[in-house]
Amino acid sequence: MILERQNFMNINQISAELEKEFTNKSIEQEDIEKLQALARLYQLYQAGANEIGTKLENLDAEFQVNYDHNPIHHMEERMKSVQSLLNKLVKKGYALSVENVRAHIFDIAGIRVVTNYIDDVYLIEKMLLNQSDVTLMQRKDYIAQPKTSGYRSLHIVVSVPVFQSTGSKPVNVEIQIRTVGMDMWASLEHKLRYKTDIEAELVDHYGADLHDYATELSGIEIKMQALYQKLNQYKN
Ligand code: GTP
Ligand code: MG
Fold this sequence. Notes:
alpha/beta, six-stranded mixed beta sheet, binds magnesium ion, GTP_Pyrophosphokinase, RelA_SpoT, GTP pyrophosphokinase family protein
C-alpha cells in the first residue's frame, strides 16, 4: 500500500487563476510560463514516482505468491515542496530553471520503502535494479556505513522512463529503503532535530542516547533476521 497521494492542477487552470488574480497587476507572461513549466515538471516526476511505486507493489505481491513472504512493510511517497525545491537550487548555487532542476535535484519525487527485515532492503534494491528500464544513478549505503548521528538507510536514485504524449522522458526518483526499526529510529531522531525549544546540551545528550539505541536496534534486527531464517527451515 502506498500512502499519500496528491492531485495535480491543470496548467490551463493555473493560467486562468493567475490571470484572474493579477488583472491590472504586474504578472508577466514570462512568470506564467515558468509556473506552467513547474506544473509540467511536477506532473512528470509524480508519474515517475507512480512507475516506481507500481513496480515495488508488484514485486511485493509476487513475493507473497511465490515465497509466502512480504518484503515490504509499507511505503510512503512524497513530492518535494516547491519552496524546498527552490531553496535547494539556490543553496547549490544554480539559477532557477527547469533544466537545472532536472539536472541537479534528485529528490523531487521520493519513495520510502519500509521493509520487515534487513535482508529485504537489499532484496528490494536488487529486484528493482534488475528491471531493464530502471537505471541506478546514485547509491549511498548508510546501513553499511551509518551516519555519525547513527542514521541507517539505503538511499538510491534511479532513473525510469515516463511515457508522455510527446514521447518518453527519463525521470529520477529517490528511494530510501530501511527496516521498520530504522524507520522508527529516524522518525524519533528527526523529531529531536526539529525541536527548537530544547537546550543545545539536552539535544546532544538525547542525540548520544539515540546513537546508542541505533546500535542496539541494529543488533536486535540482525538477531531477529537470523531467527526468522531458522524458523523458515521448518515446514509448518
Ligand atoms: P540532501 O539531499 O540535500 O538532504 O543531502 P544529501 O543528498 O547528502 O542527503 P542524504 O542522502 O544523506 O539524506 C537525505 C535524506 O535522508 C534526508 O532528507 C532525511 O530524510 C534522511 N536523513 C539523512 N540523514 C539523516 C539523519 O541523521 N537523521 C534522520 N532522521 N534522517 C536523515
Ligand atoms: Mg539527497
